[in-house]
């Protein structure tokens, strides 16, 4: 899962040969005209709200999360928590830059670069989760972390490099939305990309029925995570297939899947892998126990 084509600016307004005067309905919904009306305000709110809510949620739990992580020796959890912050900040920066790009098309290069950086971070997280769990759910320590980051970093770098070649070398607008249904150069790339990730998640879903089932966690939340990502990749791949054949309805399918991925992945990662680890129940119990003992007078002698 990798593109954010659902709320992006169209090509330069001078490109009349590429943007028809009456684009498909789903394309108009994904790419409203730059204006100061209600449509643009709603567009900006929908675009930025998921990233902003994710950041606000992390901020409300920052103190307790940092305390828990400092007390813990889990390098993996510290790394994932740090990555989650980076991704949320990048998503918000991407949204702000996209809003400027919708008005000022000379920032298209900067917007493409920010899109590549943001997607690099998300692919790195996705792949690192799979690589880490493939080493065994109970592994820990620097060795497992370094192996995870090395492999996922190489994969995410290669993925970003291929996209950069497509965009800046071949001039194929992977991250911009225009009326380009039927362009297999673009939609064929996204179809193969989504099919690859979907196939990886199908393999993970079948592992519990093989002899390698003990290498993965038995928690239902992990398989919900894999199933959701499989479905999102499947829907986005289906949208790419429709657009490759020239069906404009594919913009609706592809745009919805892309928006859902962008909005859901940070909270999905948090609830699946970090929420239980960072929960504050133990701290609250200790504080409540201390308060009860203090009210009962157990610590009165300490002040004499």
TrEMBL record:
Q: Does the keyword Transmembrane apply?
A: yes
What UniProt keywords are attached to this protein's entry?
Membrane, Transmembrane, Transmembrane helix
* Pfam families listed in its UniProt record: Tmemb_40
Q: Which GO terms describe its molecular function?
A: G protein-coupled receptor activity
Q: Which GO terms describe its biological process?
A: G protein-coupled receptor signaling pathway
Q: Where are the transmembrane segments?
A: 41-59, 80-97, 117-138, 150-175, 187-210, 222-247, 253-275
Protein name, as recorded: Transmembrane protein adipocyte-associated 1
Q: Where in the cell is it found?
A: Membrane
Q: Which family does it belong to?
A: Belongs to the UPF0359 family.
Q: InterPro entries, per this entry?
A: TPRA1/CAND2/CAND8
Quick one: a GO cellular component term?
A: plasma membrane
Name the major location. membrane
- Organism expressing this protein natively: Physcomitrium patens (Spreading-leaved earth moss)
Q: How does it sit in the membrane?
A: Multi-pass membrane protein
For whether the record's keyword set contains Phosphoprotein, the answer is: no
């Amino acid at each position: 899962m990798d593109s954010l084509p659902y709320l992006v600016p169209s090509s330069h307004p001078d490109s009349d040969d590429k943007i028809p005067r009456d684009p498909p309905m789903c394309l108009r919904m994904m790419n409203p005209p730059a204006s100061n009306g209600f449509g643009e305000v709603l567009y900006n709110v929908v675009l930025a709200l998921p990233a902003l809510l994710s950041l606000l949620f992390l901020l409300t739990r920052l103190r307790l999360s940092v305390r828990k992580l400092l007390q813990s020796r889990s390098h993996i959890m510290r790394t994932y928590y740090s990555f989650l912050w980076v991704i949320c900040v990048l998503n918000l920066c991407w949204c702000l830059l996209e809003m400027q790009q919708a008005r000022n098309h000379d920032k298209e290069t900067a917007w493409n670069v920010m899109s590549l950086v943001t997607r690099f971070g998300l692919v790195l997280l996705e792949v690192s989760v799979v690589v880490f769990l493939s080493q065994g759910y109970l592994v820990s320590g620097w060795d497992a972390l370094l192996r995870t980051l090395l492999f996922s970093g190489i994969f995410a770098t290669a993925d970003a490099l291929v996209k950069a070649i497509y965009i800046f070398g071949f001039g194929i607008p992977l991250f911009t939305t225009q009326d380009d249904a039927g362009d297999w150069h673009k939609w064929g790339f996204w179809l193969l990309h989504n099919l690859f990730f979907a196939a990886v998640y199908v393999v993970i879903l079948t592992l519990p029925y093989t002899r390698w089932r003990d290498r993965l966690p038995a928690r239902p939340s992990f398989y919900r995570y894999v199933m959701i990502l499989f479905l999102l990749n499947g829907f986005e791949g289906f949208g790419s297939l429709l657009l490759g054949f020239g069906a404009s309805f594919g913009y609706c399918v592809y745009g919805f899947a892309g928006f859902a991925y962008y909005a859901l992945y940070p909270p999905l990662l948090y609830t699946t892998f970090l929420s239980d680890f960072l929960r504050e129940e133990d701290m609250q119990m200790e504080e409540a126990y201390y308060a009860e003992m203090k009210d009962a007078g157990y610590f009165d002698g300490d002040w004499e």
